[in-house]
Design brief:
single chain; alpha+beta; 6-stranded mixed β-sheet; 4-stranded antiparallel β-sheet; 19 helices; 12 strands; globular
Length: about 525
């Protein structure tokens, strides 16, 4: 499955008399080369993280690091208990669930991007609510998450799941559509009804702007998660009742992309327009940045875990998880302990990096931390303890995704330059390495090889990989000049050992250095 067209996905499910979740599982098994049990077990682990975030934020107040927001998940959960609400108390609890997850995210707690951190409350909210209803088993809930990932893959490939690229409709809207479709399949609805739920949910999120106050994933993000969790349930019920989306869901997704392209930059995660631009929004921004508040073509998405994941420390999948991965790639390419780093940020990264914790995330990645490491909030302290000096600047880097950064990382022996973009949902793409134009994500094991430009090197490298049973997913080569310095980047499907790198260097003597890169 390519997961680029919802109509084709629905038709295939109908032809095979299958569910969308089952198609996703089969595709994942084929891509990863793992057993069905292993694939499902990993998703079960993701759901545990989702549920833990819901329970944490509903059972007790969780405050954001800035002190600007917090406790509303617990507050609404308690209010729903008294039975005096206008909205059915059980339904109101789904909103409380979503607020809870979003508050854990704002507190830099552990959540699962679904498909992003800014929209991470919606899917867990409705699934934990479904589990608590007693109508569905945990096994059924876990399998249904594969439906959400399949739907999210179509949106990501056909449009965007990045607020910086398409506004909040790309994040909250996508998550609402994913949750609505998932609930329909969970309740026994047909693939066509799943598609209708996606269309109904998404077309009522069109035009939703991304206007985070002070650049934080707090206002209005947290409340939007709560309200749209209820919207997802309503859209699911409409589809199950037989209501159709008159505009086909694929066309709705296409329109979402068009609307996002037409949206002004000020309304795409820059923290300049919308609610962020109000007098109160600007006042809060000054307070926070002055430290006066309390508290400490679209990317090719293929895997279920590019949509349901990564498991990460909040608050933003693009600005935190993606930034950690970019920093981590730079560290691996340096191939030694760093002593100095300069981060040059552009676009949304430049405008909101302090509020989103992008500075902490980039530093954490350079220090070798992963997206789920609890040390991310303390990255500056860890950098000081490790003797790592750093600076942040803003500059225009070219016609790249708004969340782009140039990392200039220095060790005792050398400096590397990595220009990379965070595309949404934690997915990243290197644009340039040491000013050579390369594109790779680090999601697959990636060999980065420095060598001399000589006839037959690529053929020899390919032959050795073939003999060792290693499949090449993508390969690129750039050189400074004929017979000069060159770099080859080779993405592979296999997990390899460090001993294999030594073997390659021994059998191809003109290799100067070989580094294995993979994001954590």
């Amino acid at each position: 499955m390519s997961f680029t067209n919802l109509k084709e996905l629905i038709e295939r499910a109908e032809q095979e008399k299958s569910t969308i979740s089952e198609l996703m599982i089969k595709t994942e098994v084929q891509q990863k080369g793992c057993s069905r049990e292993t694939i499902i077990e990993k998703m079960a682990e993701q759901f545990i993280v989702m549920e833990e975030a819901v329970r944490r934020g509903t059972k007790s107040p969780v405050m954001s690091r800035t002190g600007l927001t917090g406790g509303d998940g617990n507050r609404l959960y308690q209010y729903a208990q008294n039975g005096n609400s206008f909205v059915n108390a059980k339904t109101l609890k789904v909103a409380a669930n979503a607020l809870a997850v979003s508050e854990v995210n704002a507190a830099m707690g552990r959540i699962v991007a679904t498909p992003t951190a800014g929209s991470a409350g919606i899917l867990p909210a409705v699934l934990v609510h479904a589990l608590d209803s007693g109508k569905f088993t945990r096994k059924q809930i876990v399998q249904s998450i594969f439906t959400a990932s399949a739907l999210g893959l179509v949106v990501a490939n056909k449009a965007s799941i990045s607020g910086a690229a398409g506004g909040c409709q790309a994040e909250i809207g996508s998550a609402t559509a994913m949750a609505a479709g998932t609930l329909v399949e969970l309740a026994g609805g047909t693939p066509m009804q799943v598609g209708n739920a996606v269309g109904i949910a998404l077309k009522n999120s069109l035009g939703l702007v991304c206007d985070p106050v002070a650049g934080l994933v707090e206002i209005p993000c947290i409340i939007r998660n709560g309200l749209h969790a209820i919207t997802a349930q309503a859209a699911a019920d409409m589809a199950l009742a037989g209501i159709a989306s008159v505009i086909p869901p694929d066309e709705v997704i296409h329109v979402m992309h068009e609307v996002g392209q037409q949206m002004p930059e000020s309304l795409r995660e820059t923290g300049k327009g919308g609610l962020a631009g109000t007098p109160t929004g600007q006042k809060l921004k000054k307070q926070i940045l002055n430290g006066k508040t309390s508290g400490s073509g679209p990317a090719k998405y293929q895997s279920a875990y590019e949509i349901i994941g990564p498991v990460m420390v909040g608050p933003s999948s693009s600005h935190t998880a993606g930034a950690v991965r970019i920093g981590n790639i730079a560290r691996q390419l340096l191939n030694e302990n760093p002593i100095y780093v300069k981060f040059s940020l552009m676009g949304s990264f430049a405008e909101t990096y302090q509020g989103h914790g992008t500075d902490l995330a980039l530093l954490a990645g350079v220090l070798g931390l992963s997206t789920m490491d609890d040390g991310i909030p303390n990255a500056k302290k860890i950098a000081e303890e490790n003797g790592l000096q750093y600076e942040f600047t803003k500059r225009v880097l070219g016609s790249y995704h708004p969340n782009t950064v140039l990392v200039e990382l220095t060790g005792d022996a050398r400096t590397v330059k990595v220009l990379a973009s965070s595309l949404g949902g934690g997915k990243v793409e290197v644009q340039e390495f040491d000013e050579y134009p390369f594109k790779f994500s680090g999601e697959r094991p990636t060999l980065v090889i420095r060598h001399s430009d000589q006839k037959g090197v690529i053929a020899e490298l390919s032959d050795i990989l073939y003999q060792k049973g290693i499949n090449i997913a993508r390969m690129a080569n750039e050189r400074s000049k004929i017979n000069g310095a060159a770099i080859t980047v080779c993405e592979i499907d296999n997990i390899i050992e460090d001993t294999f790198l030594s073997l390659l260097k021994r059998e191809i003597p003109i290799i100067d250095e070989i580094v294995l890169v993979q994001t954590k």
